[in-house]
């Protein structure tokens, strides 16, 4: 008698690329799913505690990496709260610094070989479920040319300029050409799905893609490339942008139409809900241009991905991740009804 066993389907390999506050929202939701997650995190941040540490110790800015570590950690909540704690002391050194930032900087200095291995050690200590890869082993500088032809360097300077951005690129503190560590490229090339965002288009997502071997890998991978479009436009960065405009900028920077699928929130933000003083970078809700997306070869998944809390506008991580997981079992030829 012959016995047949049903082969087990391996968990999908999903690479999430970005930075800022949007990335941890998605990663926390992914922890509840059966998937092999790799977070590729920007290293071009130069503001706040990260910027101060970067200036004094000359390490990769740790803030975005710290938030991702906390999002994927399986430690008890009290330990994660300690790791995330930010001093409110009036002391000139401690004020504003998060404990996790100092730990990451200390491990980087102890290892002496850059931040990548330090993050891998810390990930083990924090019982991280998945992989966390700083996109580069050295700090990078974000550069921008604006619509008026002027240029600025430094992510915080660019964000504060309040001028419309034409193009961004990254440079290394050394004279070497910026490059991602091999583990990042390998993860992208062997992924089933690449997720971009959610996050600031020019200052969280593109700094990763502007590293030449990262951009090339994203264009070469057989994985489905999914862009989670922002819900709100941002001052200086994406004023009056539609969802198709966001994708157009991404495609233009990489020189080809590489986005396969776009997740779009269609739930209106209630009038006067957003606290514009607290979230002063946000302007208007992103407009929809499905025809413009179709012209760029994208399929659209449109739904209520909105979460409102504390007079802020966010993506609902669970809703987004549920849709991303469904995509791992759908063929690329599938198009939803909203798109037609």
UniProtKB/TrEMBL annotation:
One of its GO terms (cellular component) is cytoplasm. Gene3D superfamilies: CofD-like domains (3.40.50.10680). Keywords: Cytoplasm. GO terms for molecular function: LPPG:FO 2-phospho-L-lactate transferase activity. Its main location: cytoplasm. It is found in: Cytoplasm. It holds the Pfam family CofD. One of its GO terms (biological process) is regulation of cell shape. Belongs to the gluconeogenesis factor family. Required for morphogenesis under gluconeogenic growth conditions. This is Putative gluconeogenesis factor. The lineage of its organism: Bacteria, Bacillati, Bacillota, Bacilli, Lactobacillales.
């Amino acid at each position: 008698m012959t016995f047949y066993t049903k082969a087990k389907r391996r968990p999908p390999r999903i690479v999430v690329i970005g930075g800022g506050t949007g990335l941890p929202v998605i990663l926390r939701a992914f922890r509840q799913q059966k998937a092999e997650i790799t977070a590729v995190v920007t290293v071009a941040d130069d503001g706040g505690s990260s910027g101060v540490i970067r200036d004094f110790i000359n390490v990769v800015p740790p803030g975005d990496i710290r938030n991702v570590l906390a999002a994927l950690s399986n430690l008890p909540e009290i330990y994660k709260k300690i790791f995330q704690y930010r001093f409110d002391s009036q002391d000139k050194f401690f004020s504003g610094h998060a404990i996790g930032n100092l730990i990451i900087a200390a491990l980087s200095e102890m290892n002496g070989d850059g931040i990548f291995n330090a993050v891998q050690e810390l990930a083990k200590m924090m019982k991280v479920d998945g992989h966390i890869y700083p996109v580069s082993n050295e700090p990078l500088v974000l550069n921008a040319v604006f619509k008026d032809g002027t240029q600025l360097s430094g992510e915080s300077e660019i964000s504060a300029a309040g001028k419309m951005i034409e193009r961004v690129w990254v440079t290394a503190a050394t004279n070497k050409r910026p490059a991602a560590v091999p583990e990042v490229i390998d993860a992208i090339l062997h992924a089933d799905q690449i997720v971009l965002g959610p996050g600031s288009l020019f200052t969280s997502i593109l700094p990763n893609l502007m590293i030449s071997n990262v951009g090339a890998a994203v264009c070469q991978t057989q994985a489905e490339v999914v862009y989670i479009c922002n819900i709100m436009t941002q001052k200086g960065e994406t004023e009056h942008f539609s969802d198709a405009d966001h994708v157009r900028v991404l495609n233009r920077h990489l020189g080809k139409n590489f986005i396969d699928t776009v997740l779009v929130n269609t739930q209106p933000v209630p009038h006067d809900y957003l606290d514009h003083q607290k979230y002063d970078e946000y302007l208007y809700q992103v407009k929809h241009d499905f025809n413009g997306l179709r012209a760029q070869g994208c399929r659209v998944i449109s739904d209520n991905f909105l979460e409102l809390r504390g007079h802020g506008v966010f993506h609902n991580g669970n809703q987004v991740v549920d849709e991303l997981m469904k995509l791992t079992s759908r063929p690329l030829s599938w198009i939803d009804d909203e798109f037609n």
